[in-house]
Structure formats: C-alpha cells, structure tokens
Amino acid sequence: MSVTFPEYVSVSYDDGRGESAADYPTLEDKFEKGVAVAREALETYERPAVMWTGGKDSTLVLYVVREVARDLGVDVPPVVFIDHYEHFDETVEFVERWAERWDLELVVARNEDFARLGVDVGESVPVADLDERNRRELARLGYEGDDLTLDPDTFEGNHLLKTVALNEVIEARGFDGIFSGVRWDEQESRADETFFSPRHDSEKYPPHDRVHPILQFDERAVWDAFWNFVVPDAVEGYPAGHVPAGVDDLPGDLTPADLPVSPKYWEGFRSLGTESGSARSTDDPAWLQDLDGTTEREGRAQDKENLMERLRDLGYM
C-alpha cells in the first residue's frame, strides 16, 4: 500500500469552505459548479473512481461524471459498489442493470472474510476467527468483545463491512480520487465538507482524495435534476420536466424499470441504506413528499445512533 499521497495532485482543499446550498441558488448554478468540479478531477487524478450506491445522490454524481468524461473524450472511471451483505434485492438488481446499460466497469467492494466464514447479517462470529486485518480494525475501534454480531448499522459493523471494504479496493486498485455523492444539507457531519477533501492519513486509509461534485445540491434540487436531465437523457422520449405522480403517470408504455431511478424511491423510501435499517417515510414516491418539512435520513438506523461523525473520521462517506 502506498503510504504517501501522489505529488502530481494539486487541488484546492478550501474550495467550498463556509458555503452552503444557498450560495448556488438555481439548478443551473448547481450544475455549473458540479461540472467544474468533475472536470478538474478528471483532468487531475490519474486513477479516479466513482462511489455508486444506486441511490439518487451517487447516480446524479455518476451522471455529471459521465457527461464531463464524454466532453473531455476520456473513459468513465470505474464505479465502486460496496456490498455490505444487506442491500435490498432491488438495489443490487438496479445497479447491475444500469451498469450494463451504461457500459460501466463495476467494481464490487466486499469484506470477503465474512463470506469465507459463512456468517450472515444478524449472526455472531468469534473475533478470534476473523482475519488479521479485521481483528486489527476492531482493536483500533477499541472493541473488546469476544464475539461480534454482524450488523452493518452498528459502529463496528459499518466500519468492517463498508469502510474496510472500500479501503481494500482503493488500496488494491490504487485509486487516487474517489467521487462521492455527499451533500451539505444531508447530514450534520457533512456540512463542513469541501469539494475536494483530503484523506491522506495512511494510518487510517490508503491516501486519496474525496471529490464531492453535488455538495451544493439539496434534496429537492437532486430530484429536479433527475426529472429535467438524468432521466430524459437516459430514456428516449421521456419529456424533460415531467414529474410522475406515480407508476401510472409514466409516459407511453414506460415502467419504473426503464428509468435510472432506484425502485425503492417509488415505494416511499427517501434514503437507502440496509434493508433492516431503512424505513419508508410515506407511501408516496420520494420526490412527492414534504422534502422541506421532514428529515431525509430519519429512517436510517446508523443516523439515529449518531455514529456518522465517528464513521467519517475512519473513512466512511
């Protein structure tokens, strides 16, 4: 593993500091900044990658990166999907279907040790049975138990199943810049992020940068971007600006499977995490809900436990 960050990277880690979504008042302003960030990143990093969960935010990032890559005449970077063993089946199917449709190089990050041991989510495993890296990571967290219950929504489970899996892929592939779909308004621990964010402490993670092209979007703007750009550009004949009131309000003979919109959003989920740790807000599609008066991630288990800041310090998104 490289323990130093490459000297060829020169970006401003202060870009965006002290700003908020209000500093980019229109959708055009937000896209203009997102494109500028993606362009600088694609011109700067030699081995970039895009974090893709299949959710709305990372899909918007992927859209911006694909558009800029096309304009620059360069390949779309590999997309990294973290398999934490408890995705909705529909999420996995969505990612695989659109990765093939968009001809993406899909890289699956997975902590293979738990597959080796045949441990399912919710089951316990003796810590002594884990491989050396997982035991070392648990010790770094201060974990003192003899057994570990596999749960990606706990502090330890999230770190092992998501962050460690991501770090292993970054290390193996030598990625130097990771595009991520975090937003300023999404979670308190992300409110101080900048467009280019260093992760250079080799004691915590393989040195790399995080690139955040959609920090300046809020939840409403993300959905506006979908119905005006992401969906029309992906689906021939889809009228730009048409916001479907439901499955029966799609143009022509289109179905939700024809759109690059994760199926769970149609069912009322606004933020996608683990199958057991996510909850729908209402039965209305996500974009029709009260986005201003309610909290987007209130159904996410890891957020309820106020773990995000600690997780991000260890390298989580």
Describe the structure.
This protein is an alpha/beta fold. The protein has one domain (1-113, 163-317): Rossmann fold (3-Layer(aba) Sandwich), CATH 3.40.50.620. It contains ten helices and eight strands. The protein has helices at 27-44, 56-72, 89-101, 112-117, 132-141, 155-173, 219-234, 263-266, 301-304, 308-313, and strands at residues 48-51, 79-82, 106-109, 124-126, 147-149, 177-179, 196-199, 208-211. The strands form two sheets. The protein has a six-stranded mixed beta sheet with strand order 3-2-1-6-8-7. Helix 2 crosses helix 7 (219-234) and helix 5 (132-141) packs across helix 6. It is globular. The two termini are 21 Å apart. The model has no long low-confidence stretch (mean pLDDT 92).
Characterize the main sheet: 6 strands, mixed
Average residue pLDDT: 92
Helix content: 25-40%
CATH superfamily: HUPs
In DSSP terms (H or I, runs of 4 or more residues), the helix count works out at: 10
Rounded radius of gyration (Å): 19 Å
Task: Please name the CATH topology.
Answer: Rossmann fold
Total beta strands: 8
- What percent of residues are in strands? 5-15%
Which structural class should the secondary elements be placed in? alpha/beta
Helix and strand pattern: HEHEHEHEHEHEEEHHHH
Q: Give the CATH level 1 class.
A: Alpha Beta
- Which CATH architecture? 3-Layer(aba) Sandwich
**Total number of domains:** 1
Distance between the termini: 21 Å
Strand order of the largest sheet: 3-2-1-6-8-7
Question: Which word captures the global form?
Answer: globular
The parts where pLDDT drops under 50 for at least 5 residues are: none
